[in-house]
């Protein structure tokens, strides 16, 4: 009897120890959730028999409950956008059955590795979704702009990579613009039309009285890439700078891209650009506490002759 009891106790102890170790490993294994943020995307997934949900609102509530439960267990969780069209293409290319949870899980792992994600830190799902969508749009814009630059090839006259030269030029213009902008919190927007879309990049920076501007390197690269597209294609690109500083109104400046340089807009042109609806062309009331100012000389080196 004593021997049997000892064996049972050892087995129980081993089982509990194994369970504890698995729980520890589970807490240290990151988790990713592929989110159907859009009702239309959700409806597209309902064609799969193994997709268990039939109400988008209930689905979002369940996702939020799962996020909270994982956080309570100490599991680091990120959220990625789940695109049904991309999922169908992924399964077709990989030879996977799209109507299985395993395939959805595998696709989620793929998009988490290469796509835009947001870490869950306890925020409401309604606050997380706009951030996630914004990051996904930014990444798609950057990828599209990068492909545009890569497809331009080399200059027939000098053999220079056109896309690389345009990116180097855009980086120079951006650095000169940030230097000339001076201290303050800066919000920059670059936009340029292409054959298929209107590319838009946003950059937030801050500069103290002493020292260089502080900016996110990924945002900086995205901004420079969109500006490079405008330079390489000689399209109607433009840049707007909004500067905020304590105890003073916000100042808005603007430039148009011309021959590889940023040509300052007049105060009137900046006002018209800011106070006109881009879709309808109708006037928009100016913001209170905002000064619409002419663009200024950023002191950039002259552009090399375009080939």
Largest sheet: 7 strands, mixed
Spatial separation of the terminal alpha carbons: 93 Å
Number of strands: 10
* Quaternary status: single chain
Query: What Rg do the Cα atoms give?
Result: 26 Å
Task: Give your account of this protein's structure.
Residues 1-25 are annotated as: Disordered. This is MEDS domain-containing protein. It comes from Streptomyces anulatus (Streptomyces chrysomallus). The chain is built from 9 helices and 10 strands. The protein has helices spanning 2-28, 39-45, 56-72, 84-94, 101-114, 125-150, 162-181, 217-233, 267-274, and strands at residues 31-35, 77-81, 117-119, 184-193, 198-207, 214-215, 238-244, 250-258, 261-264, 290-292. Strand 5 (198-207) and strand 6 form a beta hairpin. The radius of gyration is 26 Å and the shape is globular.
Quick overview:
The chain is an alpha+beta fold. It has nine helices and ten strands. It has helices at residues 2-28, 39-45, 56-72, 84-94, 101-114, 125-150, 162-181, 217-233, 267-274; strands at residues 31-35, 77-81, 117-119, 184-193, 198-207, 214-215, 238-244, 250-258, 261-264, 290-292.
Question: How are the SSEs ordered, and which strands pair?
Answer:
Blueprint: H1 2-28, E1 31-35, H2 39-45, H3 56-72, E2 77-81, H4 84-94, H5 101-114, E3 117-119, H6 125-150, H7 162-181, E4 184-193, E5 198-207, E6 214-215, H8 217-233, E7 238-244, E8 250-258, E9 261-264, H9 267-274, E10 290-292
Parallel strand pairs: 1-2, 8-10
Antiparallel strand pairs: 2-3, 4-5, 4-7, 5-6, 7-8, 8-9
Helix pairs in contact: 6-7, 6-8, 7-8
């Amino acid at each position: 009897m004593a021997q049997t009891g000892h064996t049972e106790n050892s087995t129980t102890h081993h089982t509990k120890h194994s369970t504890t170790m698995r729980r520890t490993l589970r807490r240290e294994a990151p988790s990713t959730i592929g989110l159907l943020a859009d009702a239309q995307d959700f409806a597209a997934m309902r064609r799969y028999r193994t997709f268990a949900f039939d109400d988008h609102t209930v689905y979002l509530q369940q996702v939020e409950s799962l996020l909270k439960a994982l956080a309570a267990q100490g599991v680091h969780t990120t959220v990625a956008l789940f695109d049904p069209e991309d999922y169908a293409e992924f399964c077709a290319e990989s030879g996977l059955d799209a109507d299985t949870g395993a395939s959805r899980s595998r696709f989620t792992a793929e998009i988490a590795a290469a796509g835009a994600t947001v870490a869950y830190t306890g925020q409401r799902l309604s606050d997380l979704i706009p951030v996630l969508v914004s990051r996904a749009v930014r990444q798609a814009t950057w990828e599209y702009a990068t492909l545009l630059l890569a497809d331009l090839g080399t200059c027939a006259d000098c053999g220079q990579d056109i896309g690389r030269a345009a990116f180097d030029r855009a980086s120079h213009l951006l650095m000169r613009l940030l230097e000339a902008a001076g201290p303050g919190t800066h919000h920059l927007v670059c936009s340029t039309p292409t054959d298929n879309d209107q590319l838009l990049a946003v950059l937030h920076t801050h500069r103290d009285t002493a020292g260089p501007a502080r900016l996110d390197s990924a945002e900086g690269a995205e901004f420079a890439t969109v500006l490079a597209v405008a330079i390489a294609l000689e399209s109607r690109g433009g840049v707007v700078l909004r500067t905020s500083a304590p105890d003073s109104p916000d100042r808005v400046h603007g430039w148009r891209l011309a021959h590889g340089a940023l040509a300052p807009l007049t105060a009137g042109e900046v006002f018209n650009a800011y106070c006109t609806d881009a879709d309808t062309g109708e006037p928009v009331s100016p913001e209170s506490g905002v000064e619409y100012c002419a663009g200024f000389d950023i002191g950039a080196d002259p552009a090399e002759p375009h080939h």
